[in-house]
């Protein structure tokens, strides 16, 4: 059982790594080569959810073989958890819009550094929502990650993209900060939904939750696309795409698939471990995303961004160390309790 859990954690970490590093780069590729539709790029982040139907179908067929056919339900999710997944999905749809808006006007490396601040705020929300332990190391991480975001804001003039105004950069920066805060709230919200679901949470149920969440987020962004008139201009945007019309659709498809890997990994880690570990993985992959952005798009890497990266890494390491020390104490306490329970009982003689 422990081995199976470790395998699931590793698989979800791999999915999260692919999505966390590849998703922002694919979106920047879209905007860098002539893409301009914010709602459409938001839509792409969750529209790949039908891919989850394949493992769900496999799970259903497996359950049919193990139990009687009339007792096999197609979906395991009960109404309370379904409602929670819809609410989380609508919030995720709005979060995707904030992130897409930000990434349209700020470099990937800058956006990744801002998003790293979600670790501290995930810990803060998790403390109030799921009673996650709050330690001095967590406080230190929150302070460092917040200071890192402030340093980026101070150095905004030297970090703007070509042909971009200061106002566009500031709005994009604030939108990305909003995306980080909202995502930090969604992670413990999902964990709280699992705990309050009043049904056994299995990995199949997690995939169902992910499916409904992404579908709700996709519908939210679909409404935005209809209002903004994105469907009327997608064909023209594809023809004008700098890499060519065929590669436009390749970028669109790969963006949808890669982002779906991110969401499966993030939600899966919440089930296997906790919302904080999911947030930690996002922050731990920060240096990889920053380096890839600098290499792929020749983004500037000034002293201010270097300081922000150092503060973000310091904050993440601080949190990691705090969790390590906390786990050590818990294991020591459990070992002591086990040893005490194994001591022979002696009757006292009056």
From TrEMBL:
The chain crosses the membrane at residues 7-26, 38-61, 81-99, 105-130, 137-154, 169-190, 202-227, 247-273, 280-297, 303-321. It is a multi-pass membrane protein. The keyword Lipoprotein does not apply. Keywords: Membrane, Transmembrane, Transmembrane helix, Transport. It comes from the Eukaryota. InterPro entries: EmrE-like (IPR037185), PUP_plant (IPR030182). It is found in: Membrane. SUPFAM superfamilies: Multidrug resistance efflux transporter EmrE. Pfam families: PUNUT (PF16913). Belongs to the purine permeases (TC 2.A.7.14) family. This is Probable purine permease. It comes from Camelina sativa. The lineage of its organism: Eukaryota, Viridiplantae, Streptophyta, Embryophyta, Tracheophyta.
């Amino acid at each position: 059982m422990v081995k199976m859990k470790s395998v699931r954690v590793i698989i979800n970490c791999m999915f999260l790594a692919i999505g966390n590093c590849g998703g922002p780069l694919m979106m920047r590729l879209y905007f860098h080569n002539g893409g301009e539709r914010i709602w459409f790029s938001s839509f792409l982040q969750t529209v790949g959810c039908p891919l989850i139907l394949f493992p769900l179908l496999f799970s259903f067929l497996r359950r049919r073989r193990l139990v009687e056919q009339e007792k096999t339900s197609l979906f395991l999710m009960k109404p309370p958890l379904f409602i929670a997944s819809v609410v989380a999905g609508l919030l995720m749809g709005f979060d995707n819009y904030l992130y897409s808006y930000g990434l349209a006007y700020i470099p990937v490396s800058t956006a990744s550094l801002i998003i790293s601040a979600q670790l501290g705020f995930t810990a803060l929300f998790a403390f109030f929502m799921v009673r996650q332990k709050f330690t001095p190391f967590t406080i230190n991480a929150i302070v460092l990650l917040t200071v890192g975001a402030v340093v980026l804001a101070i150095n905004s003039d030297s970090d703007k993209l070509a042909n971009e105004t200061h106002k566009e950069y500031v709005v994009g920066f604030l939108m990305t900060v909003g995306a980080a805060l909202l995502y930090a709230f969604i992670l413990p919200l999902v964990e709280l939904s699992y705990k309050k679901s009043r049904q056994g949470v299995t990995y199949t149920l997690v995939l169902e939750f992910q499916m409904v969440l992404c579908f709700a987020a996709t519908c939210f962004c679909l409404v935005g696309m209809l209002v903004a008139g994105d469907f009327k201009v997608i064909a023209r945007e594809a023809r004008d795409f700098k890499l060519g019309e065929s590669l436009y659709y390749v970028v669109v498809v790969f963006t949808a698939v890669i982002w779906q890997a991110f969401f499966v990994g993030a939600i899966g880690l919440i089930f296997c471990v906790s919302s904080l570990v999911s947030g930690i993985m996002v922050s731990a992959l920060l240096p990889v995303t920053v380096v890839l952005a600098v290499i792929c798009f020749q983004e500037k890497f000034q002293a201010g961004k270097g300081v922000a990266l150092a503060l973000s890494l310091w904050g993440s390491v601080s949190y990691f160390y705090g969790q390590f020390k906390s786990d050590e104490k818990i294991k020591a306490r459990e070992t002591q309790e086990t040893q005490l329970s194994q001591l022979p009982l002696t009757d006292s003689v009056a």
